[in-house]
Amino acid sequence: MDWENARFNMVEQQIRPWDVLDQTVLNLLFHVKREQFVPEAHRQMAFVDMELPLGNGFRMWQPKLEARVLQELGLKRTDRVLEIGTGSGYLTALLSHLVKHVYSVEIDPATADAAREQLKAAGCLNVTVETGDAALGWDRHAPYDVIVAGGSYPTRPEALLGQLAEGGRLWAVVGELPVMSASLFTKVGGAVKEEKLFETVLEPLRNVPPAPKFQF
């Protein structure tokens, strides 16, 4: 397979049309080899516009979603990032090239081990992969400049917002089927501003509390 041609087509046919125009992000997609983070059984589909199974019930995001998240966060070299759900480690690797340090927390030990190995092989030295449940945050290294949630929440994730530093940003998908939205939350002056970016569908993070039931 011509990996470089497939990568070019991914960027030009999927990612640019989805309003990802930040040249730093586009360049990074050529630099970090996505196919290296895809399980062998699905490697030929590394650049297809769909989620890919990782095993243990996890899925790898669509390429355009990964790119859009990077662009919307406006990442800085001084940022300390919490990623909830390491998954394949690909988004972790992308983040690591743009920020000071990434703390990535994965609930599944086998998935965490595989991601550590791949990130090490890719030369991502400013990443710490920890095993645990960060659905309600990970206070070990808080506060964070950026938090990226790898799965959805039924309602606004207040616990995560409480771990943001001043000026910090949280990217999360909020809602329940059939209505879910990707939102960027920004903490300014102690208050939180929410910007709804686009509608999408994302599996809930494991162990996220359900939305409160309406009572008469």
Output mean pLDDT: 95
Give me the oligomer status. Answer: single chain
- Largest sheet composition: 7 strands, mixed
Kindly give the count of domains. 1
Radius of gyration: 17 Å
Order of helices and strands: HHEEHEHEHEEHEEE
Query: What is the class in the CATH system?
Result: Alpha Beta
Which fold does the CATH topology refer to? Rossmann fold
Instruction: Provide the low-confidence segments as ranges.
Output: none
Question: Can you put this structure into words, describing what you see?
Answer:
It is a single chain. By secondary structure, this protein is of the alpha/beta class. The chain has one domain (about 5-200): Vaccinia Virus protein VP39 (Rossmann fold, 3-Layer(aba) Sandwich), CATH 3.40.50.150. It is built from six helices and nine strands. The chain has helices at about 5-15, 25-30, 65-75, 90-95, 110-120, 160, and strands at about 50-55, 60, 80-85, 100-105, 125-130, 145-150, 165-175, 180-190, 190-200. The strands form two sheets. A seven-stranded mixed sheet has the order 5-4-3-6-7-8-9, covered by helices on one side. A hairpin with a 2-residue loop joins β1 (about 50-55) and β2. The protein is globular and about 50 Å long. The mean pLDDT is about 95. InterPro entries: PCMT (IPR000682), rRNA_Ade_Mease_Trfase_CS (IPR020596), rRNA_Ade_methylase_Trfase_N (IPR020598), SAM-dependent_MTases_sf (IPR029063). Belongs to the methyltransferase superfamily. L-isoaspartyl/D-aspartyl protein methyltransferase family. This is Protein-L-isoaspartate O-methyltransferase. Keywords: Methyltransferase, S-adenosyl-L-methionine, Transferase.
